[in-house]
Amino acid sequence: MEASEILKQFSDVWELRHEYAKDWKRRTGGKVLGYFCTYEPEEVLYSTNVLPVRILGGHEAPTLATPHMFDMWCPFSRDCLNQGLQGKYDYLDGIMATNCCLHPRQAFGAWTIHVPTPWNYWFVMPNAVRSPRAKKFLRGELEEFKKAIEAWTGGKIADKDLDRGIDIMNTNRRLMKQVYELRKADNPPLTGAEAMTMVWASQLMDKREQNDLLKQLVATLPQRKLERNTGVRLMIVGSENDDRPFMEMVESIGGTFVIDDHCTGSRYFWDEVVPDKDRLQAIANRYCDRVPCPNKDWGMEDISRKRFTHILQLAKDYRVQGVILIQQKFCDPHELDIPSLRRLLESNGIPCYFLEFEVTVPIGQFRIRVEAFLEQIQAEELFV
Amino acid sequence: MAKYKTKGLDCWNRAKELRARYYEDYKEAPNRGALRWEGGAWSFDAIPQALEGEVHGLTEEPYGASIGADPALQVRYQEAAEGKWGCARDLCAYLRNYWGSIVLNEFAFGGEWPKADFIFQNHICCTHAKWLQVADEIEGGNIPYFCFDVGAGAYDKIGERQINYVVEQLYDGIDFLEKVTKRKIVDEKLIQNVKNTYDSACYWAKACELNQAIPAPLDEKTMFSLYVLGTLEKSHKDIAHFYKDELYPEVKDRVANKIAAVADEQCRVLGDSQPPWGFLRVFRYLEKYGIVSVASLYTFSLIGWWKIDKAGKLVPYPTLEEQGITIKDRDHALRLLAEGELKGKLMWAPFYGAKYKNDIVTKIAKQWKCDASIIHLNRGCEGTAQHQMEMKIAVQNLGLPVMTFEGNMADEREFDEGRTKRFIDLFVTETLGLKKVAD
Amino acid sequence: MISAGIDVGGKNVHIVITKNGTILARVGGPTGINKAEAAEQLYAEALKQAGLKREDVTQVVATGSSGPRVTFANGVIPDAAADARGVIKLIPSARTIIDVGAEEGRAIKISPEGKVLDFAINERCAAGTGTFVDTMSRALEVPVEEMAKLSLKSTRSIPMNAQCAVFGESEVVSLIHQKTPKPDIARAVHDAIAGRISSVARIVGLEKDVVMIGGVAKNLGFVESLKRDLGMEVKVPDDPDFVGALGAATAAAAGVLEEKVEAKVVEKEKIEEGKA
Amino acid sequence: MVEVKKVEYWRWPETSWVNPDIDWKKGKLVTAGVDVGSVSSQAVVMVDGQLYAYSNTRTGSDSPDSAWKCVNMALEKSDMKVDNIDYCIGTGYGRVNVPMAQQTITEIACHARGANFMYGPEIRTVLDMGGQDCKAIRCDERGKVMKFMMNDKCAAGTGRGMEVFADLIRVPVWEIGPRSFQIKQEPPMISSTCVVFAKTEVVGLLQEGMPENDIMAAYCAAMAHRITELLNRLGMEEKFAITGGIAKNEGVVKRLEKELGVKSIDKVWHDPKMQEKGLPFDTQIAGGIGAALFAFAMLERGKAQSARKA
Question: How confident is the model at residue C271 (pLDDT cuts 50, 70, 90)?
Fold first, then answer.
């Protein structure tokens, strides 16, 4: 299949996520489980017949959510709840949340009360991910989670099942990373919007199915030539981001996103599970060692941020000329990191521009800001 | 003619004195060769306070609140944090006060910003670990930093595994403390500190429990100034003594003699979250209608420890004496400390879902005989403002009228006093149908 | 008994004089800068219309955000309370009231007796107020009344992203540039505000019947948008902008006063503090 | 519904000017910059990089018309025709709808460049207060943008806000500055951030009998404060220049300088010759000047071809 066709399929899954999930249930007779944050251990779910789907933005004013979350809570989380209240997720067999930031926790809290969902689960993902103690604790937590899933699905999860689950996840991660690798080229064979759509699709579709498509994509992408100028090589960093109109706007006015750091982007798949006899421990290690969400990005004994080093490395590897820092309104984890990150990037000669996102972004107002930022990066053009 | 007799608390000045001394000690510490540490109201102060020699802590939230009580100062500090450091305006208001204080190199209690020797923090909401991570950064990044995680699960899920997780981190904390201070942790001190922590946390709960009486011996406005000691240094012998041997007996005595916090009590209110500190006069305004704020999850369990008994009632967490426990050694002490905090601090339950908050606040509304609820939708603190709209619905389902008003515990730019009073007039005269009793 | 209700809002004064519940006079006009003066003049006009002398009126009750400034009133009641009393008198089946005025949009839940059970208002931002409509009509260069008619012609819904009244202007302007038909733009504006208002209304819960009052209720285009957003019927009484005044007059007749006089004292204090 | 006010006090007079000392026919390159803002539009015409003519007009609801209007007005006192322009760059919020432009550049770049031309190469920080947004720009000695920040999704403290205020208080916009100093002592600033709620607050103050001049002072102070916050975030570096309409409002500028503790550079031409000749110094045309200069540079460096029709 043509690369463009495959990317189109990912885009379709993203746009028709509900139809896809309902159809998946019909086809497989499996259960669909909704989740809010990327710290839920999908390996365990892929060891059995459960499809994990991430609740992503619906991008309309979350008016139904207002009686449950007043407007100091992040618009994205309110948007998630809003879709639940609209009944868009009526096909879910279960919903789960974890020790993420406080915003999705509000959405989950209201969801369990007001959106009829047969099963719900709270997964205690430790915050002190850099502490060896966390890995041990998380292993125990996974043990309990495995039991709960077994009880829910009525089937035992053996080591070979866990191996399969781990393999499905790792393969998916490896393939998406290979696609990202191609973006290092002078003229990337896919746009940032397309690349991120691939990741969104991976959070929405059966990874076994996506892996088959990804294998073909990795084979065909290198031959793909885009009829566009790459222009300024941009990196986009920040809160949850599934705002395709924004990405496309930026890539229509002289920029190309060549890399990102989002939980809806590279941060989701960057790290693999390193196999171990003790499968659950191996999974636990992966979630503690992965590139962290800012919320968990603090050391027990030092104030450095693991994520910053990673971002700086990405910027170098992908020859980034400028960084767009985006933040969901009221997103504390990123608000807490952005002033420091901005200083770090600028002191490394990488210009940044900051934008605050909501469920719908005023494209017009953002366009002029981004255009001016792109001009700033290429300003020499105007002067010599 | 007033309905009940009333008088101020005898131990009031003692509370003020203890608070003043705390900040004074912190400021003066270096002159006395004492160590200084920064942490949070929820840090396990029993541990750093068990180091050899004299040690004084500064807890971030009460400090931020003190600044919040002075709108002019608060705006100056926050604009420094927002302008000079560049942080978002909607971050925790205490945190912005705290950062601003460092940016301006100004201590709200006089003098320059008193730099700490080390940081001993713990993390449960989005903010705590990052708060001092950045504070340290603003100060130049050379303050030894330790932070441990207490997000091990809701009180009803706490078992050995959860306690071990925290205790193991506490051992790491002890290694850290001994490494960076070159001082030893003294087990006798540690054991005593844990005892004191239990007394502070349990006797505060017992005092709150007494507020079920009609008339209420305490009103929230007063309670704010009382629980604060527990957010400063609940492991301190004087503070434990205050709760156990001064406050608790006095409140008991007030109940026995029907001494009311508000002479014309005619409506008992359930509150939530921190108030807008610069505007406590709103509570006085309510008193004109005989409205008394008698209870809130926040005031009860920010430092207080509670449990839900067999009958499903909310009761104070048992003290060590009541459990018949004598602490044997360091390990025993650390386990008991972790257990008390993880099982007893119900304030932490809402982090794991709205159903917990709804369950606890409805119990409070019933047991403390509340007639209505006034909820401060606090834009300044997400941790305490969790599930507030769900709470509104849950309390309304009990048949209680609920009023909400938006504000911010420590950012007066987000509080509209005129409008809030307009709301109160409507709620009080129309919804509650109350008349003014005093002026 | 003859009683008068004076509703002094952000932009307009509305006055109703009733005799045993039946309306003798109804006068409205802009507040201008000096609201007290405006109220004074319009009251004189209302008396004239009713053919009454001041002393014929037993009770005068003021309401609205500037109610306390009406010096000749015997008392003041909170605006939401006036809304409730007025609405229940006109539409006894009303349980939810949506009142959108120039500078505030609010929702009120009432009991069958017209008692305020719960209420919510849009906070701190003008999106979701009558002023938003005015600003947009300026950008669209059509009068508000015209805008209402236009939007009813539209069959398309275009989302507006602007959070702010002023940015709404520029969004409207760019829609004009994209040659979007004016009816569709007008509808987009109404839909945007309706969205804000409906989320406020949902906070108090949407119990039937839902009644909309206030100046903006005269804008049928907006009412349509609101109905669409709420997915339920929305009743609008005649002269929806006079309901608050009527409610005040009703309260006056009911003689629920001595307590309100205190309320007035309270309001006065408030103004003092506001100054300080 | 009766409308109280007939006059629209926010409307400021439109202007145009032609340089009598330049014979454009003798010039090599005629370039233009057309800045279509949300509230005002300016056209600047340059001959070989020298200021030849400009206009400052109000923007209508249709950008192309507004562009034509201001270009025609700029040339009304000259025999130059639009077709005589070699290269035109559109800028400002309506830049994509400037029919006579061959290219667009954002007003951020143009204002920095224009400020550099008008105020001189020592300028490091430029504040441009537009109708709906407020831009703080850091630039180098060539007027090249190094960093910039803009106000967010709320119009608090923008030019439009000031117009709404002028309308409300019924004082012509250009009188607000001077009158805001005719006060006994500086009042506390208006606290509402929202343009609309600020209105409510102002009405309240008027009713409490606060003198109009004091209210103007309070409003100007609030605006100055918001701009200070923005400049603090950007990190302010001297010398500091203000462009755009607000530069004309002393009431805001003086208070802004006081709060910043930094004086903005005087509003005079950096080029002594231009100053001697007494060329009018209109801070609102900075964007147009920048655009016209970029157009000139493009042609000179052969980065663009002349599109001259006549």
Answer: very low
**Domain C93-236 grouped into CATH 3.30.420.40:** yes
Token pair, residue D244, equals: 């755009």
The reply to whether B438 falls in a domain is no
* Residue range of the domain that includes B285: 5-431
Q: Give yes or no for residue D153 having a pLDDT over 60.
A: no
Distance CA B60, CA B41 (A): 7
| Domain spans in chain D, listed from the N-terminal domain onward | 15-121+268-300, 151-260
Look at residue B29 and tell me whether its pLDDT is greater than 80. yes
Residue A16 CB coordination number (10 Å)? 13
Q: Cβ contacts of residue C33 below 8 Å, gap of 6+?
A: D203, D206, D207
Q: Give the C-alpha separation, B244 to C51, whole Å.
A: 74
Total beta-carbon pairs less than 8 A apart between chain B and chain D: 12
Residues of A in contact with B172 (CB under 8 A): 131, 133, 300-301
Is residue B52, in this structure, part of any structural domain at all?
A: yes
- Give D109-130 pLDDT, tens digit per residue: 999 999 999 999 999 999 998 7
CB contact under 8 A, A382 and D294: yes
pLDDT above 60: residue D2: no
Average pLDDT, chain D: 87
**Residues of chain D neighbouring A351 (CB-CB closer than 8 A):** 147
Per-residue model confidence (pLDDT) at position C275: 37
Q: Residue B131 has what pLDDT? A: 96
Q: Determine which of B62-71, B143-152, C95-104 has the lowest per-residue pLDDT on average.
A: C95-104
Average pLDDT over residues B229-258: 98
Domains C2-82+243-272 and C93-236 share a fold: yes
pLDDT (tens digit per residue) in B407-418:
999 998 888 888
Distance from CA of A22 to the nearest CA of C (A): 26
pLDDT in tens, B78-116: 999 998 999 998 999 999 999 999 999 999 999 999 999
What residues of chain D, 186 to 245, have a C-beta less than 8 Å from chain C? 193-197, 199-200, 203-204, 206-208
Cβ separation of A60 and C159 shorter than 8 Å?
yes
Both ends of chain A: CA-CA distance in Å?
46
The total number of structural domains that make up chain B? 1
CB A3 within 8 A of CB A182: no
CA B197/CA B41 separation, integer angstroms: 12
Residue B183 near residue B162 (C-beta atoms within 8 A): no
Angle between helices B60-68 and B128-138 (to 10 degrees): 80
CB < 8 Å to D256, chain B: none
Radius of gyration of chain A (CA): 20
> B439 in a domain, yes or no?
no
Instruction: Find chains touching chain B: ≥3 CB pairs under 8 Å.
Output: A, C, D
- Give the Å distances, CA to CA, from D75 to C51, D68, D78, D244: 64, 11, 5, 22
pTM attached to this predicted model: 0.92
Q: Hey, what CATH class is C2-82+243-272 in?
A: alpha beta
Question: What would be the CATH architecture of the domain defined by D15-121+268-300?
Answer: 2-Layer Sandwich (3.30)
b vs e for C54-90, b when ≥16 Cβ sit within 10 Å of the residue's Cβ? eeebebbbbbbbbbbbbeebbbbbbbbbbbbbbbbbb
CATH class of D151-260: alpha beta
H-state helical runs in B288-403: 297-301, 320-323, 330-344, 354-367, 388-397
**What's residue D199's pLDDT?**
67
The interface predicted TM-score of the complex, written ipTM, equals 0.90
The token duo for A56 is: 């992503």
The Cα D111–Cα D106 span in angstroms is 9
In a domain, B436, yes or no: no
Those residues with Cβ within 8 angstroms of residue B40's Cβ, 6 or more apart along the chain or in another chain? B59, B60, B61, B121, B122, B128, B131, B132
- How deeply is B241 buried, as exposed, middle or buried, from its count of CB atoms within 10 A (0-12, 13-18, 19+)? middle
Q: Residue A328 pairs with which residues in a beta bridge?
A: A357
